[in-house]
Amino acid sequence: MGYQRLFEAGISKESISSWRSAGKKALGVVCCHIPHEILHAADVLPVRLRATGCEDYSEAEVWMSSFSCSFAKSILQYFIDGVYDLDGLVTSDGCMQAVRVFDNWRAYSKKNGKEQVLLEVGAPRMSTATTKAYYREELKILADELEKLSGNEITDEKLLKSIELYNEERRLVKQVLELQKAENPVVTGTEVMKIMLAATNMPVEEYIALLKAFLEDVPNRKPVSDYRARLMIIGSALDNPKYVEAIENKGGLVVADTLCLGSMGFGEELNARTEDVLGSIADYYIDRIVCPRMIDNRDALHELIVSRAKEYRADGVIYQKMQNCECWGGENTYLEPALKEVGVPILYLEREEKLANIGQLEIRAEAFIEMVERED
Amino acid sequence: MAFVDEMYKVISGDMSTTDYIASSAEGKLAHVMDKDPDGRWVYDIQVAQWAQIRDAHKNGKKLVAFGGPMPVDIIYAFDCQPYYLDQLPLSTAPKVDMTAKFIDICETKTNQSMCSIDKVEMGVLLADQYGIKPDAFVYSTVPCDSSRIAYPIMEKIWNVPTFNIDLPFRRDERGVAYLVKQTKEFITFMEEFTGKKLDWNKLKECMEVANKSNELIGKIADLRSNTPCPLPGILLVTNACMSGQAADPEMVKFLEKEYETGQMMVELGMGACMNGEKYRMLFLQNMFWTQLKAYSYLEREYGAICIMDVLGHYHPDIYENLDDKEDCFKVMAVKMMNLPMIHGAAGPVDYYCDRIKYLMDNFNINASIFLGHIGCKHTWASTKILSDYIQENYGMPTLLLDVDCIDGRYKTAEEVQDSIVEYLENVVKL
Ligand code: SF4
Ligand code: SF4
């Protein structure tokens, strides 16, 4: 089986359209606190929204102003442009600008006479027994809405099956990530990013099949040896492989990430409790570390970043932050000294969703690579 | 007695912000006592509040710093002194150079786009110029992404007992129950922190005081619906913070005086614009704390008065039955959800629109201005929804104007005044 689709980073309507043409529903998902397992159990396709390749978000800017995050604006722009052909949207209040994708999407669709299914899940921003219980109820409400929307009942059995399927996806993605640990990996960072982005807009079954095909082909792939430094990339939502490619063109090899549209969006396996399946989903999504949106996960997030940098033998960390992204605005305070302690330098870069200044990025990346490259 | 501004001592690091603000308030009060003793009530409250914070330890009280919506009446009931952190940037904002120092310090550790309210709160800590160390730091998960970045860093630096409350996204019955549960957990925290059990009678006393303040806050807000508006726009500056000190008897005194003044003006048929009122402006976002003189200028020269700032508007709930514990906790929860800045900024945009509707329907507004604090990106991200809402329902265009409410370097009072005047004269045209 060919696995080329894993490397098509663009947003293709194809799989979503064929899904919907079978009379099934597809919902856009913003951020990482909507359990795909629940949508899957209702036979609704979760399409994690991104805006790869969005070069002009001027219309969305009219809605969201020049003071907001261009990742969020670009998602709205893709909706306006009809890049996303969905039945609607389900969001959690990830960061506060991502929330506005929901508000503006709703307002825009109403204005243009194409009202959509719009569901919102309140995801707590700290992890305690109380917050998890609240979130569990939110997920129950979501499940009820999805049942109404799809006409399919969500049973514990279905949820358990979906969990197992997504766990399989997590295991396979982990195998891909493990490949990056090698001195000469058979994948570049750009390719790994494309592989992970591919998950956003296809059914999980298809994605699993493609991942398996890819992993089977690993022995035939050529190891990468012409690089000068191993890098890890962290920070705001990054959905453009060209950004990573620009860094790799200058001699860096991106071997690890902690991106929400990268490895963090998959996470570790979900251990379901059969006596309370929904509760275990709630616990998992509240405890899973994805980004700094929670107020009580900072130390754990920093530890994870530092230990991952060590585990993947990163020579340097690239911390890219979307302009106007608050969520990723303060991690440097503690991260930089923590990474320094283990001898890993950090390069802090601001960016916008559109890759307007790739030349600048290349210059900064090259200088950093020169600074951190190992002399073997 | 001449008032001597000691701002440069703060800039050089020789004076703490707490000492500076407290002593400035005392200096201004002394000055006013010489010139216009009737106007002392505006300063009395500042003197009282900052002295309470500065002298908390001297007075044998534990100081509890807090950010975002917390059940503050409970902090009072444990005989602790609350310190609402937003009071700090709002107080320093008119002092541009001093505020700039702390903003710059914070930016070296975080990022430039963060809200300058938080930048000042964190910058002062990084510069070690609070002058006091809280004994506990309690904060909630809102108002925003910016506070969620700043507060955990500050928590780490202060390294004192901490408690957090998660505000629900939607403001419904479930949300109320969620907050009630967390409020009870907060009581447990306070019991452990102070080593005392909650005394319900003491809490009742605090809730009674809070009720008095909150009734007055509501009545004062309503007074502003009168045409002409009896109270100047500048008095709105305290809106954002009042809720945090509602259980302080000093707050009641201040609000009584404000209400009395406003009521007297209404009875006399007088308005705050000395040359007549023409434009009744609704500011859709925050106050312009850094350039307060702009308010008086617009009132005096153009008869343009800020009737209300939407994020500062507060019509608090009242405890109805002080012996019904569950009911009291529910009122606390509702109050947390409805606090200034929280009600409009920290949830779905519908709540923001609802508040605008209430103000547009009841306050005889004729000019709509989004005086948008640049750090408040999520409210900026709803500007078209809000301005369309006003245009469609009230046929009124909205001026979008970017300002930094705390960092006076961003725009001068004159720049902002000019933009507002141009808008009023060329678009609103009354
Ligand atoms: S990049 Fe930052 S601001 Fe933008 S959606 Fe993600 S967390 Fe929010
Ligand atoms: S003004 Fe906006 S960004 Fe600043 S603290 Fe308030 S809600 Fe947060």
Distance between the terminal alpha carbons of chain B, to the nearest Å?
44 Å
Q: Total helix count of chain B?
A: 19
The neighbouring-strand order within the major sheet of chain B is: 2-1-3-4
CATH architecture designation of the largest domain in chain A: 3-Layer(aba) Sandwich
CA gyration radius of chain A, whole angstroms: 20 Å
User: Greatest chain-chain interface?
Assistant: A-B, 47 and 45 residues
- What low-confidence regions of chain B span 5 or more consecutive residues with pLDDT below 50? none
- Overall average pLDDT of chain A: 95
Element order of chain B: H for helix, E for strand: HHHEHEHHHEHEHHHHEHEHHHEHHEH
Report the total helices of chain A: 14
Query: Which runs of chain A of at least 5 residues are low in confidence (pLDDT < 50)?
Result: none
State the distance separating the first and last CA atoms of chain A.
39 Å
CATH class division of the largest domain in chain A? Alpha Beta
The total domain count of chain B is 2
- Strand-residue proportion of chain A: 5-15%
- Using the alpha-carbon principal axes, give the shape of chain A: globular
The computed structural class of chain A is: alpha/beta
Task: Let me know the number of strands of chain B.
Answer: 8
